[in-house]
Each structure stands twice: as structure tokens, then as C-alpha cells.
């Protein structure tokens, strides 16, 4: 009886093994395809993970560069505002110089009236002289020229 149990167990084990083998053999192509797809997905995931890590590093570097560029932009904005102010003043000076050149090119009828505040008031022969004439010592004292 013990031999019979051993034989039945061996037959059942063989049949069970054959069924597992047959079932596996029947789905062999599907299993191989799934294994291949799984391997490809693992490689794709690893590549994507490497790319993600690289992009994170690049993102950190780019954020630092952007902060530096913001600082430079603020500096350049200040410079541009200063240059705009200087341009505005130079434009005003240019307009006044053009007005002065235009006025100097045509004689003025009321020149005496305009020059009266700069002339002596006492009525003597020096009336046509200016109140103060600069000489070389005045130029060097004041430092207004050159």
C-alpha cells in the first residue's frame, strides 16, 4: 500500500508538472512578450529618472542664473533711468542752444532794453560798459572755464 501511494503521488506530481509545463508552454509567447515589455519599461523608467535628475540640476543652475540676471537687470534699469535723465537735460540744453543761436543770428530791436540791467545806472560816460568785466585773474579764481 505504501508503494501504491508513492506511485499515485508520483503520477499526480507528473501530471501536475505536465499541466504547469503545458500551461506555461501555451502562454510562452505572451509571457516572453510581457517580460520583454517589462524590461523595456524598466529601461525607459531608468532613463526618465536620469533625465529628471539632470533637469533638476539644470533647474537649480538656471534659477541661480535668473537671480543674477534679475540683479543685473535692476542695475541696468538704474543706468537707463540715469541716462534718460541725462538725455532729457541734454535735449533741453540743445533746444536752448538752438534758441540762442537763432537769437544771435538776427539783430534785436530792443537790445538796449534787454541790456539795461547789465549796464551802469549812473549815467556817465561809462554807461555803455558792462558792470563787471572778467579779466584773466577772475577766470582762474572762479574756475568756470575749462
What is the β-strand count?
Answer: 0
Radius of gyration: 51 Å
Uncertain regions spanning at least 5 consecutive residues: 142-146
| Major beta-sheet overview | none
Helix fraction bin: over 70%
In whole angstroms, the N-to-C terminal distance is 132 Å
Descriptive terms for the model:
rod-shaped, mainly alpha, 146 residues, disordered C terminus, 4 helices
What's the arrangement of secondary structure elements?
Elements lengths: L1 H25 L1 H78 L5 H5 L20 H7 L4
Account of the 3D structure:
The protein has 146 residues and is mainly α. Among the domains are: 1-30; 63-103. Helices cover 79% and strands 0% of the residues. The protein contains four helices and no strands. The chain has helices at residues 2-26, 28-105, 111-115, 136-142. The radius of gyration is 51 Å and the shape is rod-shaped. The termini are far apart. Residues 142-146 have low confidence and may be disordered.
Amino acid at each position: 500500500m505504501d508503494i501504491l501511494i508513492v506511485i499515485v503521488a508520483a503520477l499526480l506530481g507528473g501530471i501536475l508538472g505536465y499541466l504547469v509545463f503545458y500551461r506555461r508552454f501555451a502562454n510562452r509567447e505572451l509571457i516572453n512578450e510581457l517580460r520583454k515589455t517589462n524590461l523595456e519599461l524598466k529601461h525607459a523608467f531608468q532613463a526618465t529618472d536620469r533625465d529628471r535628475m539632470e533637469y533638476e540640476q539644470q533647474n537649480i543652475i538656471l534659477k541661480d542664473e535668473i537671480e543674477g540676471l534679475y540683479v543685473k537687470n535692476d542695475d541696468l534699469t538704474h543706468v537707463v533711468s540715469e541716462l534718460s535723465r541725462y538725455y532729457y537735460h541734454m535735449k533741453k540744453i540743445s533746444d536752448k542752444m538752438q534758441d540762442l543761436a537763432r537769437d544771435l543770428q538776427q539783430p534785436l530791436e530792443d537790445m538796449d532794453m534787454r541790456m539795461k540791467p547789465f549796464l551802469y545806472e549812473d549815467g556817465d560816460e561809462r554807461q555803455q560798459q558792462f558792470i563787471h568785466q572778467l579779466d584773466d585773474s577772475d577766470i582762474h579764481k572762479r574756475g568756470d572755464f575749462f
